[in-house]
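All the exercises in this workshop are built on plain-text protein records. An example says more than a description, so a record of this kind follows:
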Amino acid sequence: MSIKNKPQFWTSAHLLAVSFISVIAAGAFALMLPISTYEPISITDAFFTAVSAVCVTGLTTVDVHFCFTRFGQTIIVILIQVGGLGIMTFAAFAVWFVRQKISLADRMTLEYSFIQGENTFSLKKFIFFIVRYTFIVELIGAIGFFFSLTKENFLDDRIFLAIFHSVSSFCNAGFSLYSNNFVQYSESIPVNLITCFLIIFGGIGFIVVFELRNTVVSLLNRKKRKYRIHLFSLHSWIVLTTTAILVIAGTVLIYSLEHWAGDSHITPLASFFQSVTCRTAGFNTVNIGRLHNSTLLIMMILMFIGGSPGSTAGGIKTTTFAVIIFIMLLGKNNFEDVTARNRTIPKYIVFQALIILLFSSAIAFITILLLSIFEPDIIFIKLLFESISAFGTVGLSTGITSSLSSNSKWVLMATMFAGRIGSITIFSIFMNRRPSPIKYAEEKILIG
C-alpha cells in the first residue's frame, strides 16, 4: 500500500473535537477563578457552563446574573462567540495562516461543514466573509438592543447587556443575564423582533446568506438576470422554505394548543418568539415549565430539527429534515430517486440524512435513558425535554437543570458536545473511507 492510500488517523474532525475540548477546559478553569464568580462554584458547574457556552446551548445550572461577575460574564460571551463561529473556522484560519497544506479529506470536511461542497470554495475568502458578516450583524443587533432594553438605568450596564444578548442571540446560544430570561420583555415588540432577527440570520447558514447577497447583486445586474432559471440553489431554497414553514407552523401550533389547553395569556407575539427560539436559540418570554405537554412536544420536534448547515445552530438541520420528508414521498416516483424542484438529490446525501437521523435519535434515546435512571423522581416529559434541548443545543428548560445530580449534568454535557460536533464527525468518518472494488450480488429481504 502506498503512503498516499493509507487511511488518515488525524483529520479535521479530530482537530475540531480537540479544539472544542481545549476551549471548554480553558473556559471552565477561567470561570473557576475568584475574579469570575461572587461565590466559588463546583468544577461540575464550571464545566457545565463552559460546555453550554462553547456548544452554544444555553442550559445553565447556576444563575448567570447572580453567580458570575462582569469578568465571568465576559468569559462566557467570549466562549459563546468562539463556539458560534465554530472552532473549525478558527482551526481552518490557523492552517491557512501558516500556509500548511490541507489534505483532500480535510478539505472535503471543511467544504461540507460550511458550504455543502461548493466548487468555487475559497477557504480564505469564506472565512473572512463569516467573520465580517458575524460582527456586522451582531453590531446591528447590539445597537437595536441598546435602544430597546429600556429597563436598564445605567449606561455601562445597558451597553454590556446589549452586546451580550446580541452575541448570544446571533450564535443561537440562549444565554441571558436576566434571571427570568426575556420574560420581562414579553410584550416588547422591539426586543422580540430583534432577537428573532438575530436568531434567524445566525441559524440559516453562512452559505445561504452568502447566496442571498449574490442574488441581490445579480438581480440588480440586468445582464445576469435573464440567464437565471432560479433565484437560489436547491440548498438555499430548501433552507429558506423549510425555515419559513417550521416558523409559521410552530407559531400556529403553539398558540392554538395553549389556548386549547386553557392558557389564554400566551399572545401571537410570544408564540412566534417561541417558535423561532426553538430553532436552537433557547430564549423564552414565557414560563416553559407551565406549558401544556402537547406544546412541549411541538417544541421538542422543532428543537430536534434545529437550524441549517454551516450556521451557529444545532439539531439535525433543516436540510436533513427536508430530505427525510422527500424520502417519505418516494412512492410518487416509483421508489427510484429522491427529487426536489425538478432535481435529483444524490443518493449519498440521502444516506447521510438517514445516518444523521438515526445517529441523533440514538444519542437522544441514550440521554433520556440515563437521565431517567439518575433522576427517578422527575417527571419523564421534563427529562425528555431537557434531553432534546441539550442535543439540539437549544437551552430551553422546564426549570429542572439546576436540580439535577452531578451524573445527569455530565450526561447533558456529553450530549451537548455530541450534538454540536456529531454530524461533522460522522461525515468525516465516511469521507475518509475508500470505495470497495468488490461488488456483491443483490439479495432481497422482507421489511415492514
Observations:
- Confidence is low (pLDDT under 50) at residues 1-7, 97-102, 109-119.
